[in-house]
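Q: I'm writing a short methods note and want an example of a predicted protein-small molecule complex. Could you take the sequence and the SMILES for guanosine-5'-triphosphate and return the bound structure as tokens? Please keep the output block clean; save any remarks for afterwards.
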Amino acid sequence: MRLRTLRHKLLLTVGIALALAFSGVAYFYTSYQEKMILTDYERSLQRVTNSVTKGLESVMLEGHAEIMREYSKRLRALRDVSEFVILRADGSEAFRDNATVSRVNERLGAENFPLYPQPVIRKNLDPADAEFQRALLTLEATAREITDSKGQRQFIFFDPIPTGPGCQRCHGSDERVRGVIKVTSSLAGVEAAIFRVRLQSMLIITLAMALTMAVTGYMLGRSVVHPIEAITRAMKRILSGDIGSTVPLQGGGEIRQMAESFNQMTASLKLGYDLLVREREKLTTIIHAAREAIVVTDAAGSIVLINPAAAELLGKTEANIRDEGFLHLLDNPELMERLLAGAGQAGHTETVAYRDRVVLVSAASIKDEGGRPLGSAALIRDVTDEKRMIEELRRVSITDALTGVFNRRHMDTTLSTEFGRVQRSGKPLSVLLFDIDHFKKFNDTHGHDQGDRVLQAVGQAMKAVVRKYDTPCRYGGEEFVIILPEADRAGALSVGERLRRDVEAMLVDGLHVTISLGAATFPELALSKAEQLVEAADAALYQAKEEGRNRLVVAEGPAT
Ligand SMILES: Nc1nc2c(ncn2[C@@H]2O[C@H](COP(=O)(O)OP(=O)(O)OP(=O)(O)O)[C@@H](O)[C@H]2O)c(=O)[nH]1
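A: Understood, no commentary inside the block.
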């Protein structure tokens, strides 16, 4: 709703209410004034007819009835008076015929009053006329209004002339009424007076209404419209981004409370908005600075966010990413569909190869609290180096640093795993255990560093003779183990003998070394634990040392 409309509506409502109230007052006031004017008019006629009645009695007693005819003529000349006649009870005009004169003379017994030389009987109205009859019967003045042929209002006034004591001498006391004075007058003057009253009251009412409207409008403007306008302006400012907009506190009562509540609301709105802005800025910074690729779509599936890392990691421009769409981020729509379908469960993250890299990709649909979809998001991380590093760490953790073969921990794990496997499969498992002959003496003679280089060379020799399923390990010090899955006694013998010969043949810094080996094979040896296989090989090695070194001895019979 527009503010002007509010102001206009308020003023219109107040105006209508005032107009109704003032119209009511005007109606009753003018009606009352009209009645008063008519009553005054009637009274003034009554005064005239009363004076005529009194005059009539005096004139008649003096025997000059003809004066009344002249008097009636003069009265007809009064302003607005169109007719002034004295009627007999039969509706004819008095003072015109000789019947009454004759009756009076007869009653008096002498001819006291002269007869009219040219008597006329002039009928004025129907004697049955209602107002006329009422005047005769009640002896009280009556009146009625008519509209003449010209459309003008006429007032007809009937005032009865009672038979007074003066009248009785000539006319007797048989008749209560001697006649009726009939006055017909135009109401033009009265109407003009009424019109003036109406005009005056209209003028007064219009002025009063205008004044009241002006005062009410001013009061409404100050107390209602201006504060609401201020609140509406503040709301518009808020809508256009000025969240902290407040309204001045004006007046009192509900409007002031409304303004206070509005200011409190905007204050808390601003707090929340500032917090949101800060959080959004943080989030934007994080998203843009993230090394992970982040791509987000809206509910319709259009991409709405691509961070710089996404373009770099995917090797595509932002425009390309948008054109190809969310499912083709990794050129593998099936993968993205699978991830989105598995979102919220285990399996919404997968490590996959992308071009020459390895990436960890997570994708999920974003939903609001009511479960309605808001869009989708993908988080892609380049884990190539990470993978490589983990692989390297794993390799280092199971590799002997000096010789490059597996270390003791890996040996234990592998032996245990392989022993469990051969127990289930029934296939053979062999172990070769060996050390360098007279290595103490070698160290003492050529130095520890030279000894280390010999150990490294032995490690290389081990790697050279084993198959890819075999596990060459440094057992500790100058002792080594080779785990040979699916190798029987002959196989172990073959690998061991070849290694012995290779070591015997090699030259390390111009120096020769030899090794002594013990071999043990499961299930040829009835063993229950993996360690027992190494113990059996160790016993065989001991035997090889005993028998002169630089040889391989295969463990026979059950280990002790
Ligand atoms: N250089 C070097 N020597 C080592 C290393 N580990 C163990 N040794 C040495 O290897 C020697 C092993 O000696 P012994 O157990 O007496 O055996 P041996 O002298 O080889 O005698 P036989 O085994 O009976 O032939 C010790 O002198 C150890 O110091 C190593 O990492 N580097």
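A: Remarks, as requested: The domain at 3-194 is CATH 3.30.450.20 (Beta-Lactamase). The longest strand covers residues 357-367.
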